[in-house]
Design brief:
Blueprint lengths: L19 H23 L4 H4 L14 H17 L1 H17 L5 H12 L1 H26 L1 H21 L4 H10 L5 H7 L7 H11 L1 H12 L13 H38 L8 H18 L8 H6 L5
């Protein structure tokens, strides 16, 4: 009797090392973006003249609160002379940071409030946060598959289970994840393409969910002269308010949405039970049939997402 010998790999296929092609594409894009931002900083027009009074002519990041307030004042004075350049520099820097999941939203949001003001800075930060998160989503999907599957393969199984459990209330669930003060939004930006999260829902969650955080930081920048330390930005009261706002999507998802769904189902049942018999006019019957089809589509739950783990096992390196 012959026995077939089956070789079981030590690790699943989706834990293979990334191929050389994928290893070079994403770092290449990162290098080009880094050089571009550096060239914009290096060729800043008139920065030395505009900041000569402060005695510092470089773009170094502030390490203390007093240094940051001084730098913010310099930026504001520089904006009056070179508004187009400072706006383009801020846009490129923000997109660069957000696209490659680099920490720094806190400082950039405060700079936006100090330089551009409360309302323009808040609108700009919300738009740039959404665009940068969307670029991170797309780059991760197109060029970072092997990286994500290799380094976050086991976490994807847990995250997929959470997404599947909240499939009926995906947007409120993502809004809660965004609004929660200590939630790692950068991780969600990277792994979202592999959790079957549609791009429109992802972008909406980034725009709305990160708005409270952007608002707090931009508002702090707009009243920078009244602040004494970084602790004044995220005080216990501010953190409590942000946590309370994060609970709003959960309240909608677990209390408001189920009641709305139950009312829709009850309405569908009432329409179905009120269907006319064959002795009634056909025109009235067609109306009821049309209503039934409409409500059935509204009440029908969306199809479950494709099993990500099954897809990951079939991934082949390029």
């Amino acid at each position: 009797m012959y026995h077939h010998v089956v070789f079981v790999p030590a690790h699943p296929p989706y834990f293979r090392q990334p191929s050389m092609t994928r290893l070079l594409i994403l770092p290449g894009i990162f290098a080009v973006a880094t050089i571009s931002v550096w060239l914009m900083l290096y060729n800043a027009p008139g920065w030395s003249d505009a900041t000569a009074e402060g005695g510092t002519t470089s773009w170094e990041l502030p390490s203390q609160f007093e240094n940051f307030t001084t730098l913010a004042v310099k930026f504001k004075a520089y904006k009056n002379e070179h508004y187009a350049y400072i706006s383009m520099l801020f846009t490129c820097t923000y997109l660069y940071k957000q696209t490659f999941a680099i920490p720094g939203s806190f400082l950039l949001n405060i700079i936006a409030g100090a330089v551009f003001g409360m309302l323009p800075g808040f609108i700009a930060c919300c738009i740039l946060t959404t665009l940068g998160s969307t670029l991170c989503y797309l780059f991760s999907e197109m060029f970072g598959r092997e990286y994500v599957l290799y380094y976050f393969g086991e976490r994807l199984t847990y995250l997929q289970q959470k997404i599947d459990d909240n499939n009926q209330r995906l947007l409120p669930f993502l809004l809660f994840a965004r609004m929660f003060p200590i939630s790692p939004s950068w991780l969600l930006n990277i792994v979202a393409p592999f959790l079957n999260i549609p791009l429109p829902i992802f972008a909406a969650s980034a725009f709305v969910g990160l708005a409270p955080y952007n608002f707090v930081c931009v508002q702090a920048g707009s009243i920078l002269s009244e602040l004494k330390s970084w602790d004044d930005v995220f005080s216990s009261t501010t953190m409590l308010n942000m946590f309370s706002m994060a609970l709003i999507p959960l309240v909608y998802a677990f209390f408001v949405r189920p009641r709305a769904d139950s009312k829709t189902s009850a309405l569908l049942t009432a329409v179905a039970e009120g269907m006319p018999n064959n002795n009634q006019p056909k025109r009235l019957g067609r109306r009821y049939c049309g209503l039934t089809r409409i409500f059935s589509k509204l009440a029908r739950p969306p199809p479950p997402p494709t099993d990500v783990v099954g897809l990951l096992k079939n991934v082949e390196t390029v």
